[in-house]
Amino acid sequence: MARLRYVEKETATPEQEKILGQLTQKSGKIANIWKLWSHSPQTLEAFMPFYKALMKGTLDAKLRELAYLKASLVNECAYCAESHKGTGRRAGITDEQIQEMNNYADSAAFSPLEKLVIQYAEELTRSAKTSDSLMAELKTHLSEAHIVELNLTVGTANLTNRFNVSLMTDPD
């Protein structure tokens, strides 16, 4: 059970109702993360354009989702891991890759670049820094713009992971 109450459309303030209206899925459902975050509608309203831009960036969607998923698993954020398994599958991540995520370095399920991206997400999540050798190797495969987007993806994953873990967001 979440540590805070979910903001529902029926009980939302006008400001909360506005942002929740923007986040309502075609099914009429609103993700629990947004119901919690809408307690601070101004920060959620500022976050959403950034998040949408990042998710539509130039970094390959599969690489982005591998990084997000790995950070979520490192942080033990079941909420984000489940969400990004779904978006990851749509981006091309296989069930085998999801199962092999904790053994990625030795797994044949990942390409060399995918392994580098996962390693980057893991290192950045665990210590907020990465090795010079890993960065040098990434630079041989990704543009500087892609590395920036990868870094922002991992940072965003860590933000949402910590939000959901600390507030005990219930699965959708």
Fold topology:
Elements: H1 14-23, H2 32-37, H3 41-55, H4 61-74, H5 78-91, H6 95-100, H7 112-127, H8 132-139, H9 144-167
Helix pairs in contact: 4-5, 4-7, 4-9, 7-8, 7-9
Overview of the molecule:
With 172 residues, the chain is an all-alpha fold. The protein has helices spanning 14-23, 32-37, 41-55, 61-74, 78-91, 95-100, 112-127, 132-139, 144-167. α4 (61-74) runs parallel beside α7 and α4 runs parallel beside α9. The longest helix has 24 residues, at 144-167. The model has no long low-confidence stretch (mean pLDDT 96).
Concise summary:
This protein has 172 residues and is mainly α.
Output the structural class: mainly alpha
Shape: elongated
Alpha carbon gyration radius: 17 Å
Number of helices: 9
Helix content: 55-70%
Oligomer: single chain
Largest sheet, in brief, is: none
Segments where pLDDT lies below 50 for 5+ residues?
Answer: none
Strand content: under 5%
Give the total of beta strands: 0
Which whole number gives the mean pLDDT? 96
Task: Output the keywords.
single chain, 172 residues, mainly alpha, 66% helix, 0% strand, elongated
